[in-house]
Design brief:
Layout lengths: L1 H15 L3 H41 L2 E5 L17 H7 L6 E13 L4 E9 L1 H7 L6 E4 L10 E4 H7 L6 E7 L5 E12 L3 H6 E5 H7 L8 E5 L6 H11 L3 E5 H4 L1 H39 L1 H9 L4 H33 L4 E2 L4 H6 L5 E2 L5 H27 L3 H8 L1
Parallel strand pairs: 3-8, 5-7
Antiparallel strand pairs: 1-9, 1-10, 2-3, 2-6, 2-9, 4-7, 6-7, 11-12
Helix pairs in contact: 1-12, 2-10, 2-12, 2-14, 3-8, 10-14, 11-15, 12-14
Length: about 400
């Protein structure tokens, strides 16, 4: 078999360039098709990662811990005590990069002109900076100075809706620990700018200040934690559940099913695109290869008349397709690698910021070179291309010498 390959390889290569135009068309079809798959896969992965990071870095984190029942009925009745020693030890796991405790309760905010429903989020600013991007999104004024800071930081859009602004006072109302209405005025010390939904819904103050406002002791609503490596998420969740069996420990996939579904869909969408691209490529490959076979019917018949077996004709034509598609795959890989390298510093989508806010998409995408995907998709395209080309090769091997001679005359 190796001797046959050594004999036919140079012949197959020369046969490819007997019709340069057809060869170039096939190369363009294969290379552009593979380039679109590899580049789109890199772009899609960057988009998915940016959207996921943007959402998780706002408030969600990689996971959260709540008291049992809090997620069904958030309020002062379903708060939890500060983490126990066992839970603190579990939170100190080296796989957890940071964590923070928060007081989160439903409330109503009132300005001179309007009253709107919000969520009060009491935070420790130092810890919050390690788990959330919101402290860095303050565009006017300042963020909170400490857990006892009784100022409030609100969203820009919420400030517009309330017709209030920096330095003004708003009134927060919620249910206190004693079941009575808690009401207090707060100074607006900062405005943050993220997506509109978050801006309209969350108002931040110091955790201790929030506890004092609601007449609480040291109760909290949640513990949010971040995990740099996604592969560590499941074992860390199990460890936290073991450390606090009476608590409700959930990963971001459970906290945000829509984000999890979107992330899963985006991961599988590339295979849909691969199917579409390959279908178009297969039509082009079969068309050009069949044209080549029909034009060379006399040649194949003459070769068989001179003693070449049909099996060898099949091998020769298949080898031509293997070399042609293989060259197209190499060109496509080079084009995709160049495209990814050219955009390695990031693709700035800030011009579409308002539209991206609707899906909490990242404003800068960083396509990355994924060697595994390059090898997998390139190999799939090459193998499937050869399989598709077997049909024209089989037709060539079944050419009758007599019929071929008759067609030539």
């Amino acid at each position: 078999m190796m001797n046959t390959i050594r004999i036919f390889a140079p012949l197959a290569w020369r046969n490819l360039w007997r019709n340069p135009r057809r060869t170039l068309i096939t190369l363009i079809v294969v290379s552009v098709g593979l380039w679109s798959v590899l580049a789109f896969n890199s772009f899609l992965n960057a988009w998915t990662q940016a959207s996921k990071d943007t959402t998780l870095q706002l408030l969600l984190g990689q996971g959260q811990i709540h008291a049992a029942g809090y997620m069904d009925d958030p309020g002062v009745e379903t708060l939890m005590p500060p983490p126990s020693d066992g839970l603190l030890k579990a939170l100190g796991d080296k796989r957890i990069s940071a964590w923070a405790s928060r007081l989160v309760v439903p409330s109503v905010v009132q300005s001179e002109y309007k009253t709107l429903p919000v969520m009060i989020v009491g935070v420790d600013p130092k810890a919050e900076r390690r788990v959330s991007s919101i402290p860095g999104k303050v565009v006017e004024g300042r963020y909170l100075n400490g857990p006892g800071d009784d100022g409030v930081v609100i969203g820009k859009h919420l400030a517009e809706r309330l017709k209030t602004g920096l330095g003004r006072r708003v009134i927060l109302m919620s249910q206190g620990a004693d079941g009575l209405l808690a009401e207090q005025s707060f100074d607006v010390v900062g405005l943050y700018d993220v997506d509109q939904q978050t801006e309209d819904y969350y108002v931040f103050t110091g955790r201790a200040a929030g506890q004092k406002f609601l007449r609480l002791k040291d109760e909290i609503a949640e513990i949010v934690f971040t995990i740099p490596n996604d592969q560590d998420l499941a074992p860390v969740i199990r460890a936290l559940k073991d450390a606090a069996p009476d608590m409700d420990v959930r990963s971001w996939k459970q906290l945000s099913p829509f984000l999890a579904a979107t992330n899963s869909f985006m991961s599988g969408f590339i295979y849909i695109w691969l199917s579409v691209v390959f279908t178009l490529m297969a039509i082009g490959i079969v068309n050009t290869q069949l044209m080549a076979v029909f034009e060379r019917t006399h040649e194949f018949g003459l070769l068989q008349a001179l003693g070449m077996k049909p099996r060898l004709v099949l091998i020769m034509v298949t080898m031509e397709s293997t070399l042609l598609i293989g060259l197209g795959v190499l060109i496509g890989m080079a084009m995709a690698a160049a495209s990814i390298w050219a955009t390695g510093d990031g693709i700035d989508l800030s011009g579409f910021a308002r539209g991206l806010e609707l899906v909490q998409g990242g404003q800068v995408l960083y396509p990355k070179f994924d060697a595994g995907s390059f090898v997998l998709f390139s190999l799939v395209i090459w193998i499937l291309g050869i399989v598709v080309a077997l049909w024209p090769a089989r037709r060539a091997s079944r050419c009758s010498p007599v019929e071929a001679m008759r067609m030539a005359t």
